[in-house]
Give the backbone structure.
Amino acid sequence: MRSIIDILDLSVEEIDSLIETAQDIISNPGEYAHLCDGLKLATLFFEPSTRTRMSFEAAMYELGGYVLSMSSAASSSAAKGESVADTAKVISCYADIIAIRHPKEGAALVAANNASIPVINGGDGGHCHPTQTLADLLTIYREKGSLKGLTVGICGDLKFGRTVHSLINAMSRYDGTRFVLISPEELRVPDYVINESIRKKGIPYIETEDLDGSMPELDILYMTRIQRERFFNEEDYLRLKDSYILTADRMKYAGKDMSVMHPLPRVNEISVAVDDDPRACYFKQVLNGKYMRMALIIMLLKDAGKLNGTGVSGSRTIQL
Amino acid sequence: MNIDPIKNGIVIDHITAGKGAQIYSLLGLDSLDVSVALIRNVSSKRLGKKDIIKIDAEIPVNFDIIGYVDPGATVNIIRDGVTVEKKTMEPPELLTDVIKCRNPRCITTTEQELKHVFRLYDAETMEYRCIYCETRAE
């Protein structure tokens, strides 16, 4: 059974195909409105989340499907001590596809290894968050017209930020990518990510603490939040949380075409005043995330044999 | 120093000097009810010094453990005093329940009876990482 745990579970060609599907959904939403009639998505969220869970649920509703939702570990059998493996087996009896978020790294893989239906990783601790990366890729594609030849700046918590690692893994597969990694010393990208995704592929990169000095050369500035929940030590969190704040004033250092992205939620790392800047793309990312999740759900349900070879919806036949 | 030849059993040879005790321990040879010899710092033309383990019975051996601790070691199966099989160990692709993941955020710390599985990422540096959280094995 095909599941998506890591962005690298998808080939570049499959990502191209998902982007194509998402673009078609954006242009022709009505044509997809009944594609998943009668099918059920289970959202198993063992960790607080608003946007990712709702994005998955909105995606399934807009495909005509149903949603079975578990929004916190406290309200589930996990509170009684049930394992992730058992939960995945049980939910496989009720639903056609699972989206899971869990605070433990690797939980989505355990779910996928035990479920008899496709599993989508909606975030497993500080490890992977592939659907956020799909949202990021569609946003970059729509803003820049291509995923190739871009200088990508990533700023903030590059150590614990799962979206950061997934984005680096994904963008490192496109020709001409260059990374500018902006963070405090303590929150730099882990060595294994640098080695595997950047150094071994010979991709140019720099690590720096200087946001202002880096901005003029960037096509993308991907801001991230310093996440309190990833720290064992409150003192470290308080010391580092305000390391980088992007203000309207600081945007003067950026080129006129630099896109500002953020996986959200933000706390204070992007000033609200930046929202009105036409280069701010983070709310577009949210919407793009829903479309890419729709495309991914379609792909996995098709692979699982839950959708027919063609989806007849509205006035058009959609080739699946 | 003389150790009697084995008639039926296993000889783990060409162990890098100093690694014999680790292999002995990880294979659980201390709990066997058969004769086992761990010979350390034996002279070796190829290695200078080496360790050897002799087990006086043909027990099931987890070759992955030997390949993980000391790729290049050899395992000889002896029957009726004759070497019937000789294997040179290589690093296994997957290492199951030999070492534990030390990442407190890993699902292996909470999930009931979940096997600790590591995958070989780099054969040159012998780098293994947890398949769940990708933390490097210590």
